Amino acid sequence: MNIVEIIERKKDGYTLTKEELEFSFNGFLNGTVTDYQMSSLLMAICIRGMNDNETFDLTDIFINSGDVLDLSDIDGVTVDKHSTGGVGDKTTLILGSIVASAGVKVAKMSGRGLGITGGTIDKLESIPGFNVNLEKEDFLKQVNDIGFAITSQTGNLVPMDKKIYALRDVTGTVSSIPLIASSVMSKKIASGAEKIIIDIKVGNGALLKSKDDALRIANLMKKIGYKYDREVETVISYMDIPLGTSIGNALEIKEVIDILQNKENNYLVALSKSLAAKMIAMAKDIAIEDALKEVEDSLTSGKAYQKFLEIIKYQGGRIEELKISDNIIEVKSPRNGHVINMNAYEFGKLSLELGAGRKNKEDVIDYSVGIVLNKKIGDDVKKGDTLCTLYVKDKVTNVDYDIEDLYTFDNQGSQHATINEDIEVL
Ligand code: URA
Questions:
Q1: Cα-Cα-Cα-Cα dihedral sign, residues 374, 406, 172, 213
Q2: Of the listed 39, 40, 126, 183, which one is catalytic?
Q3: What is the C-alpha to C-alpha distance for residues 388 and 403, in angstroms, rounded to an integer?
Q4: pLDDT digits over 167-180, tens only?
Q5: Is 301 annotated in the active site?
Q6: DSSP secondary structure string, 315-383?
Q7: Mutation to probe ligand 1, out of 58, 84, 171, 224 (largest number of atoms < 8 A from CB)
Q8: What is the pLDDT of residues 366-397, one digit of tens each?
Q9: Which contiguous run of DSSP H or E holds residue 184?
Q10: Environment class of 75 (CB within 10 Å of its CB; exposed 0-12, middle 13-18, buried 19+)
């Protein structure tokens, strides 16, 4: 077999056989297929797509590239959650703490940033000392001991996704339905949970831009789950504006703390509660209304926050040393008006520009930088009000952005903000 011919075949729209996919992807993992050849194949897949069988085959190849966790040593039902990623998405850390404090076991493998979207592992690494590389035995022990553990694609779980993911991140090959489905589902299957919930994000700040794409991927993920005898539930949530009020690693950890201390009430909180309730209902086999009561109790009693602190400590994190840059630039409103739109994609790009994500594989993230949204959609603003605050690297005094890309104003008072804050359980 020849990698160039395989690339050409996909470029011309042919269906690849399992042997061809194995040859290409296993070859990439063991070094006989180069970065540039794999980038080219990934781009051909992005443009030409893959049918269901190719996607099932690719998922299988991903899973077989490493170990599959056996969670049978964990007492009780295990539930896992994954999000397809968006700007400001920190739901995993919120709902993981809630769900574990309600007695449900969560063994979570998370990823790094992808494209303009942030990754949970990068956010956790902003906490000094936090170990994101748990060995299998430690991972399982922690889930049994405190109900929740979170690790990166470490040890030997789906090493192929880790390598491909890093390449996709910097080659414009992120937004492909079959690539996202096989990446997410291979990790979920290999992580061993019996029940899986996937939060599929749609909008300009998400990897998937249209609801049709979200429905297609939901269907595909359920089919993959079925093949491996896993119960998969999907939820569609919307992301045309950033999720929550912060973008950037340490800033988002701080926001998680505020939410777990029950100080916030916004779409991010509603979404986290809804996903947490779904996980509890699935794990305990109870009605969603009863699960929601457990979620509320966990937040109001402080149990969820205590669980978060316990997880951080167990994985070696020193939360009191969380560092947020004290070099800030306030972005002022150029006019009086009403905020009728915000562009999550542009905010994601700006946070990359500030250094909160990677543009190249080798880039080192500055965990202390990011953006806090002082004004959000629906707010009235006066000329000179602070719209958002940029937390920038030391010595930076100026950042190049166009305010009109970030915010849309109506200064006649004739338009009202419309924003889709639905949470659709499929
Ligand atoms: N999350 C993943 O784990 N993989 C993708 O491809 C996209 C989002």
A1: positive
A2: 183
A3: 10
A4: 998 999 998 999 99
A5: no
A6: TT--GGG----S-EEEEEPSSSEEEEEE-HHHHHHHHHHHTSS-SSTTPPP-TT-EEEESS-TT-EE-T
A7: 84
A8: 999 999 999 999 899 999 999 999 999 999 99
A9: helix 177-190
A10: exposed
- In sequence order, the 6+-apart residues with CB closer than 8 A to the CB of 265 are none
Give yes or no for a contact between 109 and 187, defined as CB atoms under 8 angstroms apart. yes
Q: Is 180 a pocket residue for ligand 1 (Cβ < 6 Å)?
A: yes
| Single-letter code of the amino acid located at 300 | T
* 80-119: burial string, b at 16+ Cβ within 10 Å, e else: bbbbbbbbbbbbbbbbbbbbbbbebbbbbbbbbbbbbbbb
Question: Within 13 A of 287's CA, how many CA atoms are on the CB side?
Answer: 3
How many A from CA of 54 to the centre of ligand 1?
Answer: 18
Alpha-carbon distance of 363 to 385, in angstroms, equals: 34
Whose CA is closest to 166, among 108, 101, 121? Answer: 121
187 is an active site residue: yes
Per the CB < 8 A criterion, the answer to whether 122 and 93 are in contact is no
Per-residue pLDDT of the chain (426 residues), as tens digits, is: 999 999 999 999 999 999 999 999 999 999 999 999 999 999 999 999 999 999 999 999 999 999 898 888 888 888 999 998 889 999 999 999 999 999 999 989 888 887 777 789 999 999 999 999 998 889 989 999 999 999 987 668 899 999 999 999 899 999 899 999 999 999 999 988 889 999 999 988 888 989 999 999 999 999 999 999 999 999 999 888 899 999 999 999 999 999 999 998 899 999 999 999 999 999 999 999 999 999 999 999 999 999 999 999 999 999 999 999 999 999 999 989 999 999 999 999 999 999 999 988 788 999 999 999 999 998 999 999 999 999 999 999 999 989 989 999 987 666 666 777 777 877
